[in-house]
Structure formats: C-alpha cells, structure tokens
Amino acid sequence: MKFFENVPKVQYEGSKSTNPFAFKYYDADRIIAGKKMKEHLKFALSWWHTLVAGGQDPFGINTMDRSYGGKTDPMELAKARADAAFDFMDKLGIEYFCFHDADLAPEGNSLQERNENLKEMVAYVKEKMQDTPVKLLWGTSNCFTNPRFMHGGATSCEADVFAWAATQVKNAIDVTMELGGKGYVFWGGREGYETLLNTDVELELDNYARMLKMAVRYARSKGYDGDFYIEPKPKEPTKHQYDFDVASCVAFLEKYDLMQDFRINVEANHATLAGHTFQHELRMARTFGVFGSVDANQGDLLLGWDTDQFPSNVYDTTLAMYEILKAGGFTNGGLNFDAKVRRPSFTPEDIAYAYILGMDSFAFGLIKAQQLIEDGRVDAFVEKKYASYQEGIGEKIRKNETNFEELETYALKNGEPTLSSGRQEYLEGVVNTILLDGKME
After folding, report:
1. pTM to 2 decimals?
2. Catalytic center residues
3. How far apart are CA 78 and CA 82, in angstroms?
C-alpha cells in the first residue's frame, strides 16, 4: 500500500490553473535575483507533523489514520513513515526534510534500545536518500514529550535527566552528521518554568548554556561545520520559556558567549505568541546577525495556542521573504513546514493540498518581495527618513564623534526640531499596489 497513491506528481501550471494538484506560483527552476526559486526557498518536509501527527488537539483525540496500512510493530511503522515521506517528497519536488529523533525512530524500552532503533532507522533513511536529490536540512532531539522531561531537559532539577538529555542530543547530532545535515536545532519545549516559587532560574540558565556548549564542543570535534539554531517560543507548553523571542535568545547567547556558533530558527506562529509579527522576528534576527532558518507556518490570531497552520497569508509571506532576501537569503537554513493539516482534513490528499498551499504562498511572497525591492520606494523612503544622520550633527552622532555637551549646545542654538511624516499609510499602499497588480514576472 502506498500512502500517497492518490497524489500525482505535482507540476507548475501557473495561476490560471484549476488543478488542485498543481503549483500556481512555485516554479522551482525559475530564476529570481540570480537564483532558482527552489534555491531561494529550500522547502523542507517536517517529519513530525506530516507523518506522525494524527489530528489531536487540546480538546480531542486523533482523527487521522497514521498507521500506514495498519502497522503495529514500532519499527515497521517507522519504516513505513519513511517510505511515505520519500514518495511524498518525490511527488512534490521537495528536496529537504527535518526530524526529531523521537519521530524518526521508536522510543524502545531503554536508552540503549532507543539508540539502536535510531541507528537502524538512520541506515534505512540514508539508503532511501541515495540516488535522490533529498537532503537533511536539520535534525534535533525531542527532550520534552516523555514524562522524564516534565521539569525540562537541560534545565531539569534532576542531574540524571540532564545526563539522559545530553545522551539524546549527542546521538541526534551523530544522526544529523550521518545524514549530511548542516543544521542542528535546540527548541526548549520544557526549558522554562511554571512558577518562580520552585525555580532556580540562574542554575537552569547556566545548565542550558552548559548543554549547548557541550553540544558545540562534541560536534566540532567530530568535524561538524554546520550551524546550531535556537528556536524561540514564549510559552506553551511551559508558562514562560527561556527562549521567549529573538531578542531574549540573543541576550542569552551573548551572556554565555555562544554567538559564534548559534543562529536563530524563526517560527511564524511562535512570533505571534510572543506578541510580535513574523516580520519583526526576522528583522531582529538579521539586525543582530543571527538569521539562520525558518519554520514556515502561521497561527490563528483568534486562538491562544500554537495552531501550526500551513501558511496562506501572502502579505506575511511577502514581508517574510523581503526580510530573508535583505538578510542575504539562506545559507544552511531553509523553509521547514512546521505545520499540520486541520483536524477535519484527515485524508492523505489533504496533506498534499496543504503543502501546495504553503509552497505557493511562499513562492508568491518571494516574487512580490523581489518586486518590492526592485520597485525601491520603500527603501528610498527609509533612507530619506534617516537622512539627518548622513551629515552635520547627525553624522557625528552616527560616528560616535560627539558628546552631551556638544549636543546640548547644538540643541539650544537650533531650537525646536522640525519633524517629518512617517507616511505609514502611503507605504502600506505601495505594498498593496505591488501585491495586487497581478504582475508575476
């Protein structure tokens, strides 16, 4: 049985197509700003949401059959997932995937069995990667689902749990390297607290940094030359997670001297949970020089949890790709669809529709972001807005060539400043014009 047997090979047919199994905007080999569209976007399949998630939410059990023909043996099920993954990636032209160790291989009855299961599955996946364009974007370890991690992994109050988590991370790094991945992600799903009444924040942060430093030392000693990522999320499952947003992650990396090795994996839905926009978090990442990779999804602003929907808002994807292009594009990172179909979308075909939606949304965003840059009006306005820092007293401020005394003398002499308009509505109109003009060349 082939899980995606009713999904045909998906091709680009253009925006006029009514074929639900066709790309309307994603033309993989189309050249934009000197690179193929697929090289700009680097789409990746998320092993967990795509192959494992069964539609469970906070108020209901699974609605989807993810047994792949009724598989009950854990290793047979894991291999069936891999078979389905490669069939799906081939049909949609996806050349990357991302995984947690826990969704790649079954837990087993001991840490030793867990490691053996993972090793067996890595060999299976590696063989399937041969003679295909499929590559690993990044790997990670799940140190948050199992009850042993109820107090956290690296930040657990139990040293034995820290040791267990370190073992998982070590093995996940080995797997990432074995499969040729150039990224390794830390998402602190339980690295936070519920109440300060029972929490030693300083020790927990110190231990989190110790875990990350050990990971870097180990991986570099084995020849790993890729990136490490921290993925910010403010809350859920813990009330307050230490990796709250990009700015708090940068502060953490600076404090513990980790900036050289770490970049940020920005997720759209996590940005909104932190009270930010997706564009804001991407802008902060590139401003601090830590932009790395993206978990591509979107949240529902009317719901208070991480809904992980497939991206459909082309305003968001355009402004996201604007930031990514301005950051120089991806190096080791890419666009991982950390997204899941809705509970009532329970058929395998729905997964294909979801990926087509997400891939088209970001392809549209890439096209329009490049048009926005080529149009130049937004950049020209921002440059003009800050023109006062290009000469005179502003230039001296920018070059750190002045002081309070000189600035006071200047302010007293010149009197009340002359202000200029921010023209927000005008700029939003510029964006609307470019998005809505229908020009896709």
Report:
1. 0.96
2. 100, 103
3. 6
